[in-house]
Amino acid sequence: MPEEPQDERRRAAVLAIEIIDAYVRSDRGALAEAAARVEEEGAVDPVTSELRVFTAFLTRRVQETGVVYKPADSREAVAAAVADMLPPELEFAVVTVWEAYSVGEEEAAERLSHGDPMVAVHMLAAFCAAVGRAVYRPAELISTLRIAAGVSEEGPDQEA
């Protein structure tokens, strides 16, 4: 039976949060496992969509708190978040694409990603982890994202 749209959105949110959490904890193994699940489940587009929502949410949250977070800060933070977490070629792609994306060069970012949709997943998740840590403690960040997405703390497939 096909998955309901709400179930697909919830699953994508859970996967997105798992990837962000792996970056927050600098857990390379958890990151590799979560990223593999995203690809295996064919969930790249829904997860990217959820990550874009989290990116907007966290960007607004940073602005509301008055924390100064400039594009240069985000580039450094994303580079630091992905350092040693990804294979070198993917790490380089994520950092390069984020540099273009963070200054509004979305077409250049798309070209630089060489059509690999996981580059967007990693750059958005790394940004969420980095910018989220500017205003939240790690556990608080993950809890806040779960609440914002309407997914439970108990487990990835539990309803809130």
Q: If you had to describe this structure to a student in words, what would you say it looks like?
A:
The chain is mainly alpha-helical and 160 residues long. It has one domain. The protein is built from eight helices and no strands. The radius of gyration is 15 Å and the shape is globular. It starts with a helix and ends in an 11-residue tail after the last helix.
Shape: globular
Mean pLDDT: 89
Number of H/I helices = 8
Query: What's the number of domains?
Result: 1
Q: How many beta-strand segments?
A: 0
A few lines on this structure:
The chain has 160 residues and is mainly α. The protein contains 8 helices and no strands.
List the helices and strands and how they pair.
Layout: H1 5-25, H2 28-40, H3 44-65, H4 71-82, H5 88-102, H6 106-112, H7 117-135, H8 138-149
Helix pairs in contact: 1-2, 1-3, 1-7, 1-8, 3-7, 4-5, 4-7, 5-6, 5-7
Give structural attributes.
160 residues; mainly alpha; 8 helices; globular; disordered C terminus
